Amino acid sequence: xxxxxMVVLMIVAVLFVAVGLILPKTFQISRTVRIQAHQARxxxxxxxxxxxxxxxPWDRHNVGHRLVIEEPANVGARMSWSGRPxxxxxxxTKTAIARVEYDVYFNxxxxxxxGAFEIRxxxxxxxxxxxxxxxxxxxxIGSYLALIADAMHGGxxxxxxxxxxxxxxxxxxxxxxxxxxxQGNEAVEKIH
Length: 192
Description:
Elements: H1 2-22, E1 26-35, H2 39-46, H3 49-52, E2 66-69, E3 78-82, E4 88-96, E5 99-106, E6 113-122, E7 125-135, H4 141-170, E8 175-180, E9 186-191
Antiparallel strand pairs: 1-7, 2-3, 3-4, 4-5, 5-6, 6-7, 8-9
């Protein structure tokens, strides 16, 4: 009997390793929220890292977490954190009216995960999509982690989007939106 149990366990272990070697180690997570606010208010929440402290979902849920903003705005802006489950850093790589992109590095990884916010104006206000794509470097186990990445992090992304929604909808400050009109003249639109 013991021999058969050992044979079954060996078969299960071999299958676990074989499947882990075949499965992709990459993952993609995407969530969208509709916000009853002008896209400029939404952009203001995500284009400056010093605004991220008020909505960043992982800061409040990690033991000993400490968020440090090294540069607040524009491409190249950086923040880092320490604590559990993994220390890391984030770098803004693109800021535009319709898209903000960043690279995020966990632990001492040299390979970054990619994140992006896509901002689309809609009749109801603004539609904000947060996408995260990455790669687990750990052999075998990384493939299984990639399979459950959406379940592990999707809820946190939704929570972060809800925080951005609350902030953008509560923002009642007056904004000036500068642009060029159809004739090429500079114009300003006041957003209330």
